[in-house]
Predict the structure.
Amino acid sequence: MNTVSATMNVIIITDPTGKDPNGAAGGSMSFAQNMFQSTFLMSKEKQFVVLSGGEGDAINRLGAIVETISRLDNGATASEAAAAASGFPGIRVMTGGPKIGAAVGGTFTAYLVLVEDDGTIRVTPQSGGVASLAPGQRGAIIHLRNTAGNPQYGTAERVRRETAVNIGKMIRDGYSATTIMGKVFEEVSKDAGEKYGGGAVNLNSGLTTGDMFTPADLNQTGYPMNEPYTKVCPVCGWSAGYPTAESYTLCPVDGTPLETIYAYDALANAITVTQDSVYVSVYGSDEVGVSETTKEIVRASVKRNGYNANAIAESLNRAIKSGYIVGVNYVEPKDINAVESSRAVGIYYNPLPGGRTSPPWELPVGANVLDVVGNVQTAIGFVLVLLVLFRSTLLTSFKKR
């Protein structure tokens, strides 16, 4: 059984000391189908990533991944771990982290990028066996080939070399690994056509794109990384993903012009830690789009008002009332756990019963008034029934005469 897997793997290390929260990253992408998270596995605890690919079968690929992870768990360097791939025909494994360096093993065609402390950039082609970036070195490894059927087939060799050189320049110029990762996804998706996610991870901070760009189902392609991904309101945080976003130019909440975010920038944003970064966790809803929309709204609220649970609740409730967050009830400040010291916000939704998409209307009269009105209506109903019966009796009596 053949397996379709990543045709682009890249690991970038800009700060081997581990001090920069954005100093090490890894990612995978392809023109092919089935680019699930298995192509960019990360250990948050031990700060390593295992990227896989190749044209071997699924059993060999799984075996190579398991053996690589086993070696890393037992303290192997990146080169020692990646060497495991050579025992599995047609398989490629790339692995690395801020403390263990980076390496690619098995069947591959890659460039090794090394940036010296004096700014010297060395970019060398590598193929087969093991190629590695030693622990403590700044640099990167990028593998790229074209998938059969890709309209841009034949561009991989040129784009692989050009992208490697650009990675080296950006490392030399002080860009973080996560920022460079976004640029790599942009360049490769546009110039080589290996464009479907896939995804990426931040090895120092444990952030991942998760299933943002992976396929929704088996035997499908992931999200095209060179296309618009979402539109976002810079004021209130309202957002809509494509294709829904095509219907909007202004924010439906406050009328602000929306900003278009391309997938490669969304990827970089998702794995980059900034002073304004807010880590949002959403609980209580599996509705499509609720988590993503909630995160954007919370981040915008925190940016404007700080970690204020009341302000966050107001922003979310506006979105719920407008129908942009569905399937959940209005939130109260007690449903929000905002912790400024860790830059984290937890949102605890209560799902609506019976498959409802929106909460009940907030009517301007109380329940007791409605009860009285209901009783009056019932009484009137009885009177009307009696009148109808009385009318029928009168008509019958009149006809008999």
Residues 228-355 form one domain.
